[in-house]
Amino acid sequence: MTEAPTRGNRTAAADAPTQRAKEIQPAGSSAQVLEAEGLSRAMPGVVAGFSTALPPGTDRELTPQIRALLKGRGAEDPWHPVLLAQIHSARILHPESQWVPGEGTFTPEGRSCLEGDGLQGRRGDGHLFVVKTADCVPVLAVHTGLGAYAALHAGWRGAAEGILPHLLDLWARAGGDPGGVHLSLGPHIGSCCYEVGPECVAAFHPRHLRDAVAQTQGRPHLSLAQVLVNQAREAGVPAGQVDAGAPCTRCHVDDRGGAPFASYRRDSRQGTRPVGRNVSFIAVVPGK
Ligand SMILES: [Zn+2]
């Protein structure tokens, strides 16, 4: 295992050489983005990353900054940010059937009309997929052969229901070889901090739990990243194409002693600050 540069635990054995911090300043807040550089190296034109915490109610303010990041890569608007009303499911939406691009996906109150936990598209469709998390795993994915990209929200329920295998199956049925899949798992609660009950462990197929459950003081602790890694390997995704080295949202501490990521488990229990959200995104710049 590679040592983490700052205190706190990383969520998986692999380090995260492909994620690089970049400071951006959304209106009314500040956030850093860890770019998922492994994905942009794998598929030209991909712009993808994971933000640090944004305060409650401000997560949509990040999208102008993500647009600026896209513009910096030579991609002019229009971009259509697509957010979900996340429901801890394995439901993956795609633009051809679930909504009309450009028509907007929000109620007048700003709530997404799209219920589900995954979004997938193809190069050239001009979407900016966004998922929000605060301990669950944001999964960003590309398929180089299909020119496809996706963003998933994988909490334990979604992971147990198989949202990642569902995506990989959709791509396989579209003719994509698993060797074309590249995945980047973003900051989430690590097994260091994720004590779970027996009902959670029982929800998973035993083969997906290999090396994913540790007993600490007699209580099971779950590595959601290891579950997702196991599922990816089962589907034939090469191990070297899964970046699972993101920090733990609950215990990671940055150079300034701050807790950069939103963590539902930490913040809701302590009541010290409202629970914000970490925002993850992926888009493909056309013509690259
Ligand atoms: Zn932790």
Description:
The protein is of the alpha+beta class and 288 residues long. It has one domain (19-189, 245-284): CNF1/YfiH-like putative cysteine hydrolases, CATH 3.60.140. Helix content is 21%, strand content 26%. The protein has helices spanning 37-42, 62-72, 95-98, 156-161, 163-173, 198-202, 224-234, 264-270; strands at residues 19-24, 31-36, 46-54, 80-82, 92-93, 118-122, 127-133, 137-143, 148-154, 181-185, 213-216, 219-222, 242-243, 277-284. Strands 1-2-3-14-7-4 form a 6-stranded mixed sheet. A 6-stranded mixed sheet has the order 5-6-9-8-10-13. It is globular. The two termini are 35 Å apart. Zinc ion binds next to loops. Residues 9, 190, 192-193, 248, 250-251 line the site of zinc ion.
